[in-house]
Design goal:
This is Ig-like domain-containing protein. By secondary structure, the protein is an all-beta fold. The protein has two helices and 41 strands. The relative contact order is 0.08.
Length: 536
Amino acid sequence: MCIADISQYIDTSVSVTMSWRRNNTVLTNGSDFTISPPVMTNNQYTGVLRINSLRDELDNGASYNCSVSVTPNTPFIIAGNDNSSAVTLTVARFDINHVDISINIPSVPVSGDVFNLSCVIVGPPNFVENLTSVRWTYYLQGSQDVASENNDATLVPVVRNGNIFTSVLTLDPVKTTDARQYYCQVAISVFSYIDRNNRDLTVQIPPPSVSVFPNPPTGPIYESTSYLLTCTATVNTTIVDTPVTASVVWSDPSGNVIPTNDTRRQVIPPTGSSLVSMLLFQPIDTGLNNDGGTYTCQMIINSGNSLIASSQPTNTTLPVTVESLPPMTVDFSSVGSFELGQSLTITCTIKTVERLVVTPLITFFKITKTDIEMLSNLNRPYSITTDDTGSVTNYTLILDPVRFEDAGMYTCMAEFNVTGFNNTNDPSTATYDYQEASGVFTLNVTCTILPFAATSVTAIPGTTGANVSFIIPNASYANENYSISYTGQQFQANQTVSMTRMSSSSVDKPIMIYIVLTGLEEDNVYQFTIDSSNCL
């Protein structure tokens, strides 16, 4: 700014001219300089030279001269005057210290949000140059441009406010893979200036969706059974696109945290990339522990990346109602009397509830008047089977064929004791439930044997006696009485035959009995038949 005082010419009409020089070079209006026309104010003539952009190579040490020439319009009255003034400029070279670059991250975004990162570039006061470029990159070398690498990233045009420039990078949506280091690189080509600043962006994992499912999913929940709660967390892998893990906290109906070392209520935490935790009751109880109520599963999603913050905890609940254990049942499938020689299958069925935490102790035995024999000692085929649920056990004995010695009382007994460990003074390890049940099946063996023919009758010469031979059918006999008849007439009734009991029913038994023949007539043919009257 150049100011000329012309108060001495206050009463005289004058013409004033003003010119500007740099190092004796006359300056004119152009791209480098703007010369404002002089303005007269209170006898002061003021002119302004605007240097549109200082350059250290041109302006440092340069002398700027303002020359003013005053010429009276009536020179014969007063003489004119020429004067000038000069100033030498000191201009520092433009460097990185003249620009401040900062990246503004106002908060920690949650994955899925729309989020803006701002790069603020502050130039020197009265800075007139424009920025050549502002780039957002992932690396110092600037080899990965954010907007090119990330389809969800958008650059907003740079906004200028005086000497402050703002570049905005929008992430829509922000993802966990966006948690990284960002560089804002600024270039001003007229000064061959390039500078940058960087900042880490931390992204928080959003709260997961958490659900709890029971096993069994439906039906009553009985005490003394195993019971499982499965807690599953789900994340949106579109926005959580990095490996994550989960941590869990289970709380009981009283609000107490269930420790991971609880023996009866086993907390199975998530492992690896699995977002599933389980709470296993071994067993669930209504008495000492009163496990009924509402259980809470709390899940937090974590990442091993230091720039990815864990999610806020998410809770979900499930009410559990525990019912008393119903009685165990023992039933036989067969009852009553069975014919000698038939095929018989005797089945003892023991039923408990599903998922009972112990296996009942089952004893199957036969009781006679003189002995007790276990199933394994009966020398008959048997099988023990259990259904898929483990709640139905069948003890099956096969009698094929039925023998006299199979008669007796068959008994099936079952019992179980659900306890913790051994310390009955400790409520957490004491007995929970004890049950026993039994069933009895009495087998009566009957037989119906029709008369059968004698195989031969041999008369004894000179006597009235004869030997009658016949075969006892394939069955077991005790000592018996036999009746022999011929042509419809019975004789020698109640002939006692001893020691004919058979030890095995697998073969026929030949018998020969001596009888006294009476009333026979010569030349007649007689058919002899035998009745067995004593069948056990």
